[in-house]
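This section describes the prediction task in plain terms. A model, or a person checking by hand, is given the sequence of a single protein chain and must write out its three-dimensional structure as a string of tokens. No templates, partner chains or ligands are provided. The sample shown here is typical of the held-out split.
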Amino acid sequence: MNFSKTVFSCLLVLLVFSAGQTVSAAEGRPRVAVRMGVNTGPMVVGNMGSTQRINYTMMGDAVNLASRLEGANKAFASDLMISEATYLQCQDDVDVRGLDFIRVVGKSEPVRVYQLLDRRNTTAGVKADLVDQYNRALSAYRQRDYVKALNDFEACLSLVVDDGPALTYVNRCKLLIASPSETDWDGVWNLKEKG
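The expected answer:
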């Protein structure tokens, strides 16, 4: 399977959708949000059911996690989240931004997730500056220096005012500064809703 083609297709869908949003906004129509979750793993795909009712579908833990990642985008105000399993299959072909280690509803194992940005080495301009600043902020966050992380994530917002992941971490840093986490916290963020 060509994982890179799969994630490039997701990027293309978002690009076309964004162009449609621009036209809709010009016509006074409301904005519609689209979120995608992509995961890689074993699954059962095909026609399932009985002779009375049959449906082409897919099942399995990998499918369930992809669905949860779609919903997890809401927590980061992002649009295209991929799991580490998917990232490892296409890492030579894509630019990503690390989002977090999360535990989705219904799962006990944490998963590392990324925001898919673009084809490899094509993230440029303000977006590239944002990713560099964001990575510095995320490093401070991972070291539990929440004051520095807060300042660095706020610097991200000076580059892109409505950057969802940076806004998420600004709010999270403020929460962790006000109510510090336990010293044995594993650094995994537990999502409370499916999305």
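For orientation: DSSP finds six helices and seven strands in the chain.
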